[in-house]
Amino acid sequence: MMDVSQDMWESTVRNYEVDYQKIVNNANYFHYFDNARAIFLKKIGLDVNELSNNGINIVLVKTEIIFKKSLKHNDEFIVKTTLSRISRFKFKFVQEIFLKGDDNREVYAFSESVAASISTSGKPLIIDWPGHF
Predict the structure, then answer these.
(1) Per the confidence metrics, is the pTM higher than 0.85?
(2) What does residue 38 show for φ and ψ, rounded to 5 degrees?
(3) 121 near 106, Cβ under 8 Å?
(4) What residue spans define the domains of the chain?
(5) pLDDT (tens digit, 9 = 90+) per residue, 27-48?
(6) Residue 125 pLDDT level (bands cut at 50, 70, 90)
(7) Which residues of 56-72 are buried (b: 16+ CB within 10 A; e: fewer)?
(8) DSSP code of 28?
(9) Using CB atoms within 10 A of its CB, is residue 111 exposed (0-12), middle (13-18) or buried (19+)?
(10) Cα torsion for 79, 106, 13, 76, to the nearest 10°?
(11) Helix, strand, coil shares of the chain as percentages rounded to 5?
(12) Is 19 a catalytic residue?
């Protein structure tokens, strides 16, 4: 099973996201990647809030972030997200952050995450994927 889809989400580094070194605090990369995943899922018809209200949870099983270069205050950046289904209830997100306007797409941070759909009781749950998913 290897259905794949991609999305791009843009944002700007805000003042409160930088640390005393004037670079983005590492914890904020988790927020960037998480927000891009949620927006992407909603675009393909899987609203995590709506699913949760119906007893279906999309949970992060594993995530890894490799930090390559630091974003700074006011940097405009893009999170590229590639989603692939790896089983009937698990899927993988591969994500990269790079500066907006950088034609070379130098990667600032890279993430691989595995998520699963589960019931409110914690059991694996197969969900229908819109479109080709």
Answers:
(1) yes
(2) -65, -40
(3) no
(4) 4-119
(5) 999 999 999 999 999 998 888 8
(6) confident
(7) bbbeeeebebeeeebbe
(8) H
(9) buried
(10) -80
(11) 20, 45, 35
(12) yes
Residue 129 is predicted with a pLDDT of: 67
- The half-sphere exposure of 101 on its side-chain side, counting CA atoms within 13 A, is 4
Q: What is the pLDDT of residues 46-100, one digit of tens each?
A: 888 998 999 999 999 999 999 999 999 999 999 999 999 899 899 999 999 999 9
Task: Determine the average pLDDT of the residues in 96-107.
Answer: 96
Element (H, E) at 51: helix 48-53
Strand order in the sheet with 4-12: 4-12, 76-85, 90-99, 109-119, 56-67
CATH topology of domain 4-119: Thiol Ester Dehydrase; Chain A (3.10.129)
Question: Which of these is catalytic: 19, 47, 102, 128?
Answer: 19
Write the CA distances from 46 to 28, 79, 85, 116, integer angstroms. 24, 19, 14, 13
**In the 8-state DSSP scheme, what is residue 76?**
E
Question: At 50, which helix (H) or strand (E)?
Answer: helix 48-53
Cβ atoms within 10 Å, residue 120: 11
